[in-house]
Amino acid sequence: MTEQANGAAAQNDQPQFSLQRIYVRDLSFEAPKTPEIFRQDWQPSISIDLNTRQKDLGGDFHEVVLTVSVTVKVGEEVAYIAEVQQAGIFLVKGLDNAAMSHTLGAFCPNLLFPYARETLDSLVVRGSFPALMLAPVNFDALYAQELARMQAAEAQA
């Protein structure tokens, strides 16, 4: 009986990660120059902005929100602005601070991005624009860059 109790206690100390739910938190689409923009040559310039945030929900549950904003211009005119806040609830347990930070800041956004990309693509096509095929994003590299930037800022302070 003691061996079973010790085994259960040891298992509770093991790191745990579980995706609980993925959902769209907010969605926005604006095409201010329609229908005139459809008559112009389609030579777009695309600007993409990524942002993540985390919220502790208590009991080892965390919400991670990935915001992807896309602005597409033809010349100087905005063809459309599309934004999605793709969110997920994750159970994350038994990690040290550095591993927890990396999991919430890079691993979870990596899981959310394909959903955000598909949502934006579908939204843009429904606006009668060409499909928006966003390239994959390396959130591990972005996380490492942000850590390096924060460490450099601390060193200068």
By CATH reckoning, the class would read: Alpha Beta
Which strands sit side by side, in order, in the main sheet?
Answer: 1-4-3-2
Number of domains: 1
**Average of pLDDT:** 92
Low-confidence stretches: none
Shape: elongated
Question: How many individual helices?
Answer: 3
- Beta-strand segment tally: 4
The CATH superfamily title: SecB-like
Output the structural class. Answer: alpha+beta
Helical fraction equals 25-40%
Helix/strand order, N-terminal first: HEEEEHH
Radius of gyration: 20 Å
Task: Describe the largest sheet.
Answer: 4 strands, antiparallel
- What fraction strand? 35-45%
**CATH topology-level name:** Bacterial Protein-export protein SecB
Proper CATH architecture: Roll
- Report how far apart the termini are: 56 Å
Reconstruct the topology from this structure.
Blueprint: H1 2-13, E1 16-30, E2 44-58, E3 61-74, E4 77-93, H2 97-126, H3 139-156
Antiparallel strand pairs: 1-4, 2-3, 3-4
Descriptive overview:
- The chain is of the alpha+beta class.
- The chain has one domain: Roll (Bacterial Protein-export protein SecB), CATH 3.10.420.10.
- The chain contains three helices and four strands; from the N terminus they run αββββαα.
- It has helices spanning 2-13, 97-126, 139-156, and strands spanning 16-30, 44-58, 61-74, 77-93.
- It has a four-stranded antiparallel beta sheet with strand order 1-4-3-2.
- A hairpin with a 2-residue loop joins strand 3 and strand 4 (77-93).
- The termini are far apart.
